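Why do we care about 3D structure at all? Because function follows from shape, and shape follows, mostly, from sequence. That is the central idea of this module. The next example makes it concrete: a single protein chain, its amino acid sequence, and then its structure expressed as tokens.
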Amino acid sequence: MLFESRVLHTSKDFEFAADYEDAFQLDGERGLVAIADGVSSAIFSRLWADILTQAVVAEPPDLYQEAAFKLWLSERRRAWLSQIDVANLPWNQRQKLQQVGGAFSTLMWLQVWREGSDNGDALDDAALRCRCFGIGDCNLFHVRDGAILRAFPLTTTAEFERDPISICSVNLNRDHGLEFSVWDEAAQAGDLLVLCTDAIGKWAVTRMQAEDPPQWEAYWEMPHDEWLAEIAALRHSNQMRFDDTTLVLLRLKTEDKSESDGGCGESIEPIVLTEAANAPDAEPDPAADEIPSESDATEVTNASPETDEFQQSPEG
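And the structure:
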């Protein structure tokens, strides 16, 4: 295990847990964790957030290979569409689906691994390294001995007021605008990594700007009911927005099981997906991850998304 973990989460309304549209997925053995925030103003965003986080942990996409990432994303979009019975949706949901264009979600994922030691030291003493990719307003905090070393990618309250970039479950020909921030840094056993959705992220950054940062260590042992009471108090005092709220705590470990990833630089520019042509052997079918038109809905129920051409959804 590369880390121990604890997850605290709740919906906007404590009494309606089914309305929770965040998602998270963890694999401590492989050192992978993902968190996402489904956009509630869209439709079926919880399903989309679940698909993205599960897929990232099972098979992280290569953002440095544009064609490979487009193929990966196309497969996730097919998975989302395959779970929606478009033909039998109520008319209002079908109308909203066409109107907004699909589901939307932010996404952040982190990978932790051990860098190999060249001086014969035991693996227990090998350095840990973290690499995180994020799009939208999920945030990460790197904590050591109670002090916050870094917030990523958002570091000011004002940044949380902007409309976040999110990934759509349908190909709306906007993927060239997807820009992933990248954080890559050495870490130590015992470090605490905090991943959270925007409600907690904004509150934490606001506290940092006021030179009164959260004491993240306290949440490791805090009972869930006590945490919910704190969230309720913060919401009612207007210190935290009413929103789905997810907090993932990771305690880095040292163990006799290494990862084989290579090293990389500490300062990395954001990754922007350009309009460059896909490789011939990896080109996804752009029609396969589009929403069917209302007139085609009945045919789509038994159609193969790999072969049927769907009408392009209007932009929402």
